[in-house]
Each structure stands twice: as C-alpha cells, then as structure tokens.
From TrEMBL:
Protein name per UniProt: Ferrichrome ABC transporter ATP-binding protein
SMART domains assigned: AAA
Subcellular location: Cell membrane
Species of the source: Methylobacterium indicum
Residue span, ABC transporter domain: 3-239
Length: 273
C-alpha cells in the first residue's frame, strides 16, 4: 500500500470540516473525491498532503507519517495542486515548471540532463512547450492552469493530488487532462487523488470514488457500485438516472434538468412552443 489514511479529523475552531476520513491508495490507482460544495473534498486533500493539522488520525506513505516528514522530503513523495495556486505574474511558464524540480535539485545543485528531460516532458505533456518563455500574466486562465499542472508533473512524485484540476479548462483540455491523468497512472504508476465536480468525468477515469457529504465519506468503492447505490440523487439533491452508453463504458449519470430546474408547470411540450 502506497498511502494509508485512517480516522482523519480536521477542525477549524468549533467547526469539524472532516470527520473520521479513511483512504487506502495503491500505486497506479486513480481516486476521485466528489461531493457538493463544502462537503470536505478540499480539506481531505489538504489533510492527506499534510498541509493542515489533524485533530485526530494518521496519514502514512509506505508506513511513514506525512506529519513527520520535512517539506522537501514530502515533496519527493507527493505533489499537490490547489484550486487557486499563486505565483508572480512576471514568472515565465518555464521558470514555474523548473520550480517543480526543487525537491530533487535543491538550492545549490545545478539541473542535470535528467532534470531538463523531465521539465521538457512536463511542458510537452500539457501542450505548453511553445509557451516556455511566456510570462504567466500573458496566459489565459486555462493556459495558466496547465502551467501549474506542468509544474506538478515536473515534481515527478509517486502521488499526485489535484484539487478541481479541470477548472478554467475548456472541454477539449478537460479531456486531454483526464487522459493525461489516466496515462500517468497506467504508464508511470503514479497514484492520483483528485477532487472533481463533474461526476461523469470522475466515473470515466477513476478506479475508485469517494463520495463526501458534510465532512464525512459516505461511499468508497468502484464506479459501478456507486451507480447502483442511489446515493447521487440524495447527496446532490438531483433527479436522474445512470445509463449505459456502451458495453465497455462506465455508467453515465443523466440529470433530469426539467424536473430539477424548471419553474412549476413548465413542461418539455411548453418549451417547444
């Protein structure tokens, strides 16, 4: 087992943001955290990464507590991409991605051929090789998001935490990013945990899904088991159903938009007039 979290609890003052959270992660596994806003997804990621103090519980990477590791040592094991990362606007894409190698290079060592090859791969994997000299303030929101993902890839950690990684990306780059996540897991054995809003994207790429509600994990299992659980309608307060789009494809959740959002009395027939 690569990562093991058990009984993880996080409190902010009198408010319990995460309660009794548990997770087991194997090499090459893709885990999705889904749930409504405020359900504890981001807090769970931050606690798993050792970025917030835990009132109770443990997080271990191959038997070692993440809370006992120094930041540089921990960075060699895991990379974390928050929802809204910050860097100086004048920093270039290439400079940002090179920072991802700090855990391996340090302050006084020079970048070797392997480091340069990893940086080039990270830029190429996100389609930003031609933007290496461009400052961050000259990028679109989606391009900037991809730059940060490149920096996380350059870190070459065995565990990758992504907090809403498809935010600001158009549908084409969302698909490319999810494909990249899948390839990293299968080809390089990287274990990925990502908080994500889009249920169907989670169903398409994740090996296991954790459903968060009110700071607790109310489901932990394979996508097919989630489809038959009936939890999605209750947790997200929507009406819909899972449908099979193809024999080998994961179930797709089809929301009944008219029943969920339409004013009282508005029907499909009235919308057609």
């Amino acid at each position: 087992m690569l990562l093991h979290a058990r009984d993880l609890t996080v409190r902010y003052g009198q408010r319990t943001a995460l309660s009794g959270f548990a997770l087991q992660l194997e090499p090459g596994e893709v885990r999705a955290l889904i749930g409504p806003n405020g359900s504890g997804k981001s807090t769970a990621l931050q606690a798993l990464a050792g970025l917030v103090g835990a009132a109770a519980g443990r997080v271990e990477i191959e038997g070692r507590s993440v809370f006992a590791m120094g930041r540089r040592e921990l960075a060699r094991h895991l990379a974390f991409l928050p929802q809204q990362p910050v860097a100086p606007d004048e920093m270039t894409v290439g400079q940002l991605v090179r920072q991802g190698r700090f855990a391996h290079v340090g302050l006084f060592k020079s970048y070797g051929p392997d480091d340069e090859a990893t940086i080039a791969w990270a830029l190429d994997s996100t389609g930003l090789a031609r933007f290496a000299e461009r400052p961050l303030n000259a990028l679109s929101g989606g391009e900037r998001q991809r730059a940060w993902i490149s920096a996380a890839l350059a870190q070459e950690a065995r565990i990758l935490f992504l907090d809403e990684p498809t935010t600001f990306l158009d549908i084409g780059y969302q698909v490319e990013l999810l494909d990249l996540v899948y390839r990293l897991s299968r080809e390089r054995g990287v274990a990925v945990v990502m908080a994500i809003h889009d249920l169907n994207q989670a169903m398409s790429v994740a090996d296991r899904i954790s459903v968060m509600e009110g700071g607790r994990c109310v489901f932990d299992g394979e996508p097919g088991a989630l489809a038959s659980s009936g939890l999605i309608e209750r947790v997200f307060r929507v009406q819909g159903r899972f449908v099979d789009l193809a024999p080998d494809a994961p179930p797709h959740f089809d929301v009944d938009l008219l029943r969920r959002h339409s004013p009282v009395g508005l029907t499909a027939q009235s919308l057609s007039h």
